[in-house]
Design goal:
The chain has 393 residues and is α/β, with parallel strands linked by helices. The protein folds into 2 domains: 131 residues, Aspartate Aminotransferase, domain 1; 243 residues, Type I PLP-dependent aspartate aminotransferase-like (Major domain) (Aspartate Aminotransferase, domain 2), CATH 3.40.640. It contains 13 helices and 12 strands. The strands form 3 sheets. Strands 2-8-7-6-5-3-4 form a 7-stranded mixed beta sheet, sandwiched between helices. It has a 3-stranded antiparallel beta sheet with strand order 9-10-12, covered by helices on one side. A two-stranded parallel sheet has the order 1-11. α3 packs parallel to α9 and α10 packs parallel to α13. The chain is globular, with a radius of gyration of 22 Å.
Length: 393
């Protein structure tokens, strides 16, 4: 009886795995098999504490430093500029905290469509440290208004304020891209510190940080087929910050705590693969996005799309006309084993809805669904999703 039950459970699990469609890769991506293979030795044989001086420790210490060199080379910076963290949220928090505490920034410019890891951190320092903050103007598609940003920077510089600008490279809900070179140049011209949340772009675009005037960038491994629980904070040579976790001497005395060795190895391997396969994978993903956009346009009346120009190629944000049936889209898609989201995975359980859609005034007449793609998705999956959407709506 026990064996039969176990067999039935395994069959059900296999069936669900075969039929489930995952189109929420902006939330997290499946682990690449090559990445897992690179990580496994550091889960088994090479288990030493990197701070130990004997051979087991030296092996894992070498793996960490080799991973740091790999990440630094790919991003066009020095290994000393790379600090391993637990992910994008910690990196964002740290960059903002260091800017306030160590760089003496007393005004923060951000946007209303940033990830909550930035917005809530800014709100915290505004409430408890009396740090002033302001939002840069956005156009109807979510693009930053560079004229407004420059005007704010100029006025704040004249008033003697030390400014932090925190703007994400690509929005995680609608995919709108920021011209980080242009923003970096504006910040430099006005003596401002620039932090960019690059969680959705590191691992998806070639990036040479040596050509960008940016003091901090954040990245997370699980957004490009690496493991969860590992990220980086890039800190430029232009700034000097104090330790952000106290204790031992890990991460060159900046972030105490025994390192996530296999996560670090996995991060570097995933980044390496993303660069190696970028041309092939990005072209394929772009074709999937274009195919789905056209299929939806042909099949569903009144469908529209957020940020179709200068947008993240992995994300398609779709607006469906609000009615009795479309109001339950997410639930009905889930019932049909289709995994998508209405916005950020970090807030999808909240009743408040998407703060991004609210900021762009698109919550009243539309239901917005984010479809996000990876190299593992297929056109056949998209056909099935469109068929289900037609049936539901």
């Amino acid at each position: 009886m026990k064996t039969a039950f176990a067999s039935a459970a395994n069959n059900t699990g296999t069936e669900m795995k075969q039929t489930r469609i995952y189109l929420d890769n902006a939330a997290t991506t499946p682990l690449d098999k090559e990445v897992l293979e690179a990580m496994l030795p550091y889960m088994t044989d090479h288990f030493g504490n990197p701070s130990s001086i004997y051979s087991y420790g030296r092996e894992t210490r070498l793996a960490i430093e080799n991973a740091r060199k790999t990440a630094a080379k790919i991003l066009g910076v020095k290994p000393a500029n790379i600090f391993f963290t637990s992910g994008g949220t910690e990196s964002n928090n740290t960059a903002i905290a260091a800017s306030v505490r160590d760089l003496k920034c007393d005004h923060i410019i951000t946007s209303p469509i940033e990830h909550h890891a930035v917005l809530h951190t800014v709100e915290h320092y505004a409430a408890y440290n009396k740090i002033e903050h302001s939002f840069v103007k956005l156009d109807e598609h979510g693009h930053v208004d560079p004229v407004d940003l420059e005007n704010q920077l100029s006025a704040l510089q004249t008033s003697g304020k030390k400014v932090l600008v925190s703007l994400m490279h690509a929005n995680n809900e609608i995919g709108v891209l920021l011209d980080i070179k242009k923003v970096g140049a504006l910040c430099k011209a006005h003596g401002a510190v620039f932090h960019s949340d690059c969680v959705q772009t590191v691992g998806h675009y070639p990036m040479d940080l040596s050509s960008v005037d940016v003091q901090f960038i954040s990245a997370a491994g699980h957004k490009f087929h690496g493991p969860k629980g590992i990220g980086i904070l890039y800190v430029s040579d232009d700034v000097e910050i104090k330790p952000f976790i106290f204790g031992g001497g890990q991460e060159r005395n900046m972030r105490a705590g025994t390192e996530n060795v296999y996560g670090i190895v996995g991060f570097a391997k995933a980044l390496e693969i993303s660069v190696r396969d970028h041309e092939k994978d990005s072209a394929y993903i772009r074709s999937l996005k274009a195919y789905m956009k056209q299929s939806l346009t042909d099949s569903i009346e009144g469908v529209s799309f957020n940020c179709t120009d200068n947008a993240l190629y992995t994300v398609l944000s779709v607006c469906f006309q609000r009615n009795e049936r479309s109001g339950f889209l997410l639930m009905n898609l889930d019932i049909n084993n289709i995994c998508v989201s209405g916005g950020s995975a970090c807030s999808s359980g909240a009743d408040a809805g998407s703060h991004v859609m609210k900021a762009l005034n698109k919550t009243d007449q539309h239901v917005t669904i984010r479809f996000s793609f990876s190299k593992y998705n297929t056109k056949e999956e998209i056909d099935r999703v469109v068929e289900q959407l037609v049936d539901i709506i």
